[in-house]
Design brief:
- With 323 residues, the chain is α/β, with parallel strands linked by helices.
- The protein has a single domain, classed as Peroxisomal Thiolase, Chain A, domain 1 (3-Layer(aba) Sandwich), CATH 3.40.47.10.
- Helix content is 33%, strand content 26%.
- It is built from ten helices and 13 strands.
- The strands form four sheets. It has a five-stranded mixed β-sheet, with helices on both faces. A four-stranded mixed β-sheet has the order 8-13-12-11, sandwiched between helices. Strands 2-3 form a two-stranded antiparallel ribbon.
- Helix 3 crosses helix 4 and helix 7 packs parallel to helix 8.
- The longest helix has 23 residues.
- The radius of gyration is 18 Å and the shape is globular.
- It binds oxa(dethia)-CoA.
- The site of oxa(dethia)-CoA (UT7) has 20 residues, from helix 2, helix 6 and helix 7.
Length: 323
């Protein structure tokens, strides 16, 4: 059978690290103890002038290509998830195509599903590869959320960071028990759009918007929706939670990760946690966390890994893969 096989991962983070104490010193009415206790976040990376969604995405992509042992010219499909594109158009994916020297004439486009964006991009690339629309893909999550934040709103500005993660996928003939993306499910419910949104910023309105969130409501929905979609994907993959080697979750809040592990009956040791170092990097958080765990040797070839995320829209999804 043809599957999309993960050939390499890469990530990129802005050099500037801002601690919780530094935010308080800069005038945000908060404290390290509140942020750590309520979210698990200790620091975040913040982009500087000259760093953008496109440049971070290109850096992460080059590292993923190096890990995969592929040349950029071999990439004929780029799907980039972002809620913070550098321009309304052209798509940031086309910018990355040109920056890294991917095959001209290949397919490149962006996907907007906020924090679930990487799951949506992965599902899209997987479908296109399996139906022959491409042979080798870059799937990227890249965000510069710091430029969307209202630094007067302590309920949101302490939660987010900037960064990018990338994954190289190749369509390959594999055995039933071989590697690749095994099952994916995506969902959306637009009735909850006002719980997490940006109040402007669209080219059609000519406004500049800031992120707004009803944190407590989002938290409640996240725990329920993630448990449901994880159960659904485990069923589609024909496995039990106990068989998972790793869960690579969206990194929004350490308490959501605890609740998800408890619902799956998995020890926290099997959850990859980077929210303490990266904060919430929206669509970048899953591929960033994956790359950290691949590079530090925890996630190895043959491991069964679950990716999951939930975010604005609402949108949510999960995907099961064998490395
Ligand atoms: O990635 C997309 C998905 N996003 C999420 O999953 C985020 C989900 N939500 C959350 O992670 C949590 O709801 C938050 C971390 C955003 C907030 O935690 P919470 O436990 O739900 O706190 P809260 O919003 O109910 O606020 C509790 C108190 C309030 O004070 P009062 O009204 O009790 O006096 C807030 O004003 O904490 C206060 N507060 C803060 N205090 C210090 C809110 N933000 C801060 C802050 N520093 N940064």
């Amino acid at each position: 059978m043809i599957r999309s096989v993960i050939k390499g991962t890469g990530s990129a983070l802005p050099a500037q690290i801002v601690s919780n104490d530094e935010l308080a010193r800069r005038g945000v009415d908060t404290s390290d103890s509140w942020i750590v206790e309520r979210t698990g976040i200790r620091q975040r990376h913040i982009a500087q002038p000259g760093e953008s969604t496109g440049t971070l995405a290109a850096q992460a992509s080059r590292k993923a290509l190096e890990a995969a042992g592929l040349a950029a010219r071999e990439i004929d499909l780029i799907v980039l998830a972002t809620a913070t594109p550098d321009n309304t158009f052209p798509a940031t994916a086309t910018q990355v195509q040109s920056l890294i020297g991917a095959r001209p004439g290949g397919v490149a486009f962006d996907v907007a599903a906020v924090c679930s964006g990487f799951l949506y991009a992965l599902a899209t690339a997987d479908s296109l590869l399996r139906t022959g629309m491409g042979t080798k893909a870059l799937v990227i999550g890249a965000e510069v959320f710091s430029r969307l934040l209202d630094w007067e709103d302590r309920g949101t500005c302490v939660l987010f960071g900037d960064g990018a993660g990338a994954m190289v996928l190749a369509a390959e003939e594999v055995a039933e028990d071989g590697p690749g993306i095994l099952a994916t499910r995506l969902h959306a419910d637009g009735a909850h759009g006002e719980m997490l949104y940006v109040d402007g910023g669209a080219g059609t309105t000519g406004t500049v918007g800031k992120l707004r969130m009803k944190g407590r409501e989002v938290f409640r929905h996240a725990v329920v929706n993630l448990a449901d979609v994880l159960t659904e994907v485990l069923g589609a993959g024909g496995i039990t939670a106990g068989e998972l080697d790793w869960v690579v979750p969206h990194q929004a809040n350490a308490r959501i990760l605890d609740a998800t592990a408890r619902k799956l009956g998995l020890p926290m040791e099997r959850m990859i946690v980077t929210v303490d170092r990266h904060a919430n990097t929206s669509a970048a958080s899953v591929p960033l966390a994956l790359d950290v765990a691949v590079r530090d040797g925890r996630i190895k070839p043959g491991d069964l890994v679950m990716f999951e995320a939930m975010g604005g829209g609402f949108t949510w999804g999960a995907s099961l893969a064998r490395m």
